[in-house]
Amino acid sequence: MKISELSRRSGVSIPTIKYYLREGLLPTGTHTARNQAEYSENSLRRLLLARALISVGGLSVAATGKVLRAMDEPVTLLKSLGLAHYALPSPFPAEAHEDVDEKFVAEAQALIKAAGWELVGDTPYIECLAAGQKALSLMGVDWTAEGLLPYAELAHATARLDLDQVAGFEDRMAIAERVIVRTVLLEPVLATLRRLAQEHEAAQRYPRSDQLARESDTE
Amino acid sequence: MKISELSRRSGVSIPTIKYYLREGLLPTGTHTARNQAEYSENSLRRLLLARALISVGGLSVAATGKVLRAMDEPVTLLKSLGLAHYALPSPFPAEAHEDVDEKFVAEAQALIKAAGWELVGDTPYIECLAAGQKALSLMGVDWTAEGLLPYAELAHATARLDLDQVAGFEDRMAIAERVIVRTVLLEPVLATLRRLAQEHEAAQRYPRSDQLARESDTE
Prior knowledge:
By secondary structure, chain A is mainly α. Chain A has a domain at 90-155. The first copy, chain A, is 65% helix and 3% strand. A two-stranded antiparallel ribbon of chain A has the order 1-2.
């Protein structure tokens, strides 16, 4: 298809598509005539994926390029998943990663062990977890492996749902794309669901119309 | 305490504290002498909270001010929780909120109903959820209430854990602060735990060292 059709089918403007092409987010089309290029269904899929990572996942164009190129590496599915996963930005701002000492890394590892997780790659998420635990400890929230284990178990159940959804697909690239899409797009959806569920739970547990005295009575 | 002690105990620099004071993130101290002010334990707690929302939650200074002022409203606990909650930034980038049509809002409401959640306030999170469902639908991921219900149930279990942690506290402000701290700080922790659990699950389900042909065999 021509770039105009690529734009129409994806809903992404032609200048944005050209920008993504320059940044290496999409494979360049096949040149058929001067100033004309043909794009494949694969380009369309990549474009939709890039757009979703940027506009919903909030990834930068540079981070998106890193994820997409990682998925293209000619390696096994598991390795390709890992590379794409590790190319995602940390869930924490850079500042939270400063001065995270060994005590927190050790407790992050203890939590992973308690959850029974076997990690094969050189995952950056142990350090992310440690950064989060440090932040919790500064705010007086239980940051220990024991305290966080119930949350880890719910995260594990969530990850099982994620992987269940890609079972049955056989194409390595299709699986990697689907896992990355789910990882990135569902992250804000899950955060939203948790906030809604908190509102429901708070309304169940605390009275609607009274003052502090009565609130303490009902606890 | 003097500003120097406030800085030492919080780990936040004096210029940053002064900036937060100007932005209304902290109550101004009690003036005791020319160019001297006394700060309370309450100021320290507020400062730690502001710092955590900014450096770990990734909130802007303006968004942080909005959350902190919402918590100070002289209303019931439930209302105060709601105000602080609604002052949090959306989990989605602004772009994801564009052109979300009624179809998605209706399905967001169907999901909330299916989950059994009763929402008392005028929550902004129904629209956030609809924005997420639209993004999922564009990427061919199941975005229906039925498809997302298992995720909603896990989010509900997570919210129960969150609220369990504040049970027993009686002070309205202490509860509101604790809920907000947990909501914001645990969001990236939960995202990290899910990514780690995905790595474990992927390693369990897909072989480590072989090519596409064998990968499909084992599915």
